[in-house]
Structure formats: C-alpha cells, structure tokens
Amino acid sequence: MERRTFLGGAAGVAAAGISAPALSQGAAARTLRVIPQANLTSLDPVWTTAVVTRNNAFLIYDQICATDAAGNVKPQMAAGWDISQDQLTWTFTLRDGLMFHDGEKVLAKDCVASIERWRRRDPFMQVLSANVAAIEAVDDTRFRFRLHRPTPLLLMALGQTQFPCFVMPERIARTDAFTQIRDTIGSGPFRFLQDEWNPGQRASWAKNERYVPRQEPVDGLAGGRVPRIDKVEWTIITDPATSANAIAQGEQDYWEYPLHDLLPMLRRNRNVVVEQRLMDGTYGIARFNTLQPPFNNPGIRRAVAMAVDQRDYLRAVAGDDPAGWGACEGVFTCDTPLANENGSDLLKVRNIDRARAALREAGYNNEKVVLIAPGDYPQINALSLMTADILRRLGMNLELISADWGTLVQRRTSREPTERGGWSIIHTTSSGQSLALPVFHLFLRANGNDAWFGWPNVPEVERLRAEWVEKGGDPAESRRIAEALNREAMQAMYYVPLGYYWQPSAWRRNVTGAFRAPATVFWNMGKS
C-alpha cells in the first residue's frame, strides 16, 4: 500500500485556519489548548483501557503511589506505608490536605473502595488477588492489606502506569467495575467540566484550587503534580493538516500525536517545539476476536500472521527512516531483559502465498471478517488499513468499517457475532513500558472472559504468568518463563505484534514544563 500523503493539506498549512473558541487574550494565556490523540467518549479509567481516558484520569484523579522516571514506586496520596515483620500486613497512611473536588475530605474508605473496584479489572492485581485476604480501613487516614503470603509485587501493581489505581469517592467506587461511571469527582489537580464536554468536539478541565501537591519536584509520574494553568481544553480536530496549521498559527498550544508526514514542516517553524516527550516507543498490535468465526480458529489466526511484515506497517505510520521505528517480533518490549523471539518463526515468514496456502489448510470457509478502522486516529488507522490490504490479498471476505476512535472503543466491548454488531479484528497501540513484564502486559493476558477484548483462553499462558509472579525475582527463571510465554502466545496467536515507532509531540515555544514521562500528563505545564 502507498503511504497516505498530505501534500495538498501541508501546502495550505501556512494559510488555512480553523474555528477556534472565542477566548479573550487573557483567558487564552491561562488556557492550555490541546489537540488530543483521540476523541474522549468514556470517562471511566476502570471500565476502559483507552489511553485518552487514562490521560483524562491523570488530570482529575490522584493515585496512592506512582512511578518515577527511573521506574521506582513512590508515595503520592500516601505519606508512606509500613510492612509488618512477617510481610503479611501492609498499612498505608494518607498525607494531609487531600480533598475531593466537591469539598469532601479523602478518607481511607475511599481508597479501599477504589482499590476493590480497580482490582476486578486490572490484569496485574487479578494475578495477585489470590494472595489478598482483605483490604480494610483502619481509621480515616489509614488502610491496610492483609495477605495470605508475602507479596512484594503489591507496590508495583498499585503504582503502575498501564492501568493506574485512581482514587474516587466511595459512593462512586462502589459502582460495579463492568458498569461505566459518569460522575467525575476526584481529588486530582484539575476538575472535569461536565457542561463543556461535547464528545467529538471539545472537553475541558479547570484548575482544582483545593489541590495540595507534594512538596517535591515532579519525577516521571511521581512527585509534585502542580496545576500551573487555569484551564486545559481539548479540541478534537480530525484532519492532520488542519491540526498542523492550528499549531503553526498559535490557535492551539499542544498537539499530542502529530502525523509523522507533517513533522518536517512543524520543525521548520521557529515558534514550534517538536520533541519525543513519551519515554518509551509506541507498540502496535492487531487483535483478533477469538470468540467468533473465523478467528476462533487458531490456524486462521496464524495464517494471517504469516503475511505480516512489521516493516511495512511501521513505514505506513512513521515513514521510511528506520530511526523512527523498529521491528520487534516478540511479545515483550525490545531491548528489555525479557525480550525474546522464542517461537516467533511465523512472524518471519512474511509471504502472502504461503499465508494463503495456510489459510486454505486451516479450513477458512469465506466467513465475513469485520475490521474496524478509526479514521480520526491516523496512526492506528494506518495499521488497520495495512491489515485490510493483507486480508484482501489473502482472499478473505472483508468488511472494512471506518469509524471514529470513540465508537471503536465502545464497539470493541461487544462479544456478539458480526451480524449483530460484533467485530473480528481491531488495532491499537501501547507504550513499551506497559509490555515489559508479564504481570501488567495487557495484550498477553489470556484468561477468557476476563481477558482484554478478543477474550483469548490459553490456560498455559495464565499458568506461566502465575509462575512468573512466584519465581520472577530470579533472573534466570524470569528469562526462562518469558521465553515460554512468547512461545505459547505465538502458537495461540491471539494478537499480532506489529513493532514500535517513536511518537513525538509538538507544542508552541511559549508552553513551559513539558517534561518527559511514561504518559501524557498536563500538570506542571504552563504558558509564558
């Protein structure tokens, strides 16, 4: 497939304009105007793993503990914690000054309810939950974990970046983990402005005047989360050339995921900064629905994987310069201790004819394949269109549906057959940090109905994950288990790794405090 080009759009960047909100000069100086990666349709960071929802959650919620730039878990809402001598009781104490947006004080019972809801959906805590006897409030400022056995990974789970444990008021956190919440009361640096939320167009947050940050420098996602701007406003702009013009002309301040084709033009603008703000590469995947034909057949999934050449996908997203991307034909983040290609031979076939023969041998019978591509998310859309091209060349009965990202996020929850609104294959991305270890590797989890969308059921993968929790402290055992996990995942092939690319961000030069972090956050950012 030819890469999508924007020559006409880029040529008009210097002259074209967009409809900007009517802000006075003073209000504009106090507002950080952002073009987000995608449309915000769900506000619940427990119900969905969509990164755009997580970015919203980092604005409005706080965490008990968080991870710094070096990967160490530090206190955040907690003043600290004590571990009993037998390591079976962990007692957390909340720091002073924690208030919810509605003026209520954050209490230990709020933390307990939030942990209980979160751990029903978090892949990491699902593995550790068998070790947990109880989570209970001791008093208003202290809560504790009582454990059946020592669980040193508990802190890593609570402070993780992939699926953070955000704290909500108890009355909200009591909502079933599989039901979306609409109430956005948190205790974080910003308040969500419900009356300004128009999905598909705009979302806004106001500075939380009650927020008391930690009295220490920000470090990764840990430290002092200081709201240095009065308002954060996201404007959904689906056309990349229009987004580039908005940044170039100063109508927007920050573009989270600029299209790679337009980066050279942005770099030539002396008023624009283009830098790699995210600390890790962005890893793409193609995800099969293993519940419905034809991809309930592992042989058919493997046949499709045989036709994949990661390099084609990465060029479609990030261009021809190999410095901007890298092939990674295993399930763990490349250049990390667990990275390996044990059993990854299928991803090295890269041959459409052999894949076509394997598809016939697997018994494909012209079942419809519904692939949903997010037209408003250029990077994931490019990955989706590459797979669509492969499926057509394989002779599969493809229905390609173009939708916005918010619709895809909602529809991927459906387990129905394709004729009743279901799906066959979707694409998404994740940071490299999130794929480095088995315990929080969302795509690797294969526990059936409780797995991530696609719902693979591979008991051996789950057994190996549990074994890693027990033995992962030993480097040799950790490596052995990682190789076995890669082999089992490649054999079951419930998702296809598509390699990684580097995703810079762009912002106006008068934007301050754009520090590097494992996720896109807007605290500590301001305007000069």
Give the % helix.
25-40%
Give, in spatial order, the strands making up the sheet with the most strands. 8-9-10-1-11-19-12
Rounded mean pLDDT is 92
Q: State the distance separating the first and last CA atoms.
A: 44 Å
Compute the gyration radius: what is it?
A: 23 Å
Domain Solute-binding protein family: 72-416
Protein name: ABC transporter substrate-binding protein
Keywords: Signal
Organism: Roseomonas fluvialis
Notable features of this structure?
about 25% helix, four-stranded antiparallel β-sheet, about 525 residues, 16 helices, alpha+beta, seven-stranded mixed β-sheet, 21 strands
What does this structure look like?
The chain is an alpha+beta fold and 528 residues long. It has 16 helices and 21 strands. A hairpin with a 5-residue loop joins β2 (65-67) and β3. α10 (298-306) packs antiparallel against α12. The protein is globular and about 65 Å long. 52% of the residues are buried.
Summed up:
By secondary structure, the chain is of the alpha+beta class.
How are the SSEs placed, and which strands pair?
Elements: H1 7-11, H2 25-29, E1 31-35, H3 51-60, E2 65-67, E3 73-75, E4 78-83, E5 89-94, H4 108-119, H5 123-128, E6 132-137, E7 142-147, H6 154-158, H7 170-173, E8 190-192, E9 202-207, E10 231-235, H8 240-248, E11 254-255, H9 263-267, E12 272-275, E13 282-288, H10 298-306, H11 310-318, E14 325-326, H12 352-362, E15 368-374, H13 378-393, E16 397-403, H14 405-411, E17 425-431, H15 459-471, H16 475-492, E18 495-501, E19 505-508, E20 511-512, E21 526-527
Parallel strand pairs: 1-10, 1-11, 15-16
Antiparallel strand pairs: 2-3, 4-5, 5-7, 6-7, 8-9, 9-10, 11-19, 12-19, 13-17, 13-18, 14-18, 20-21
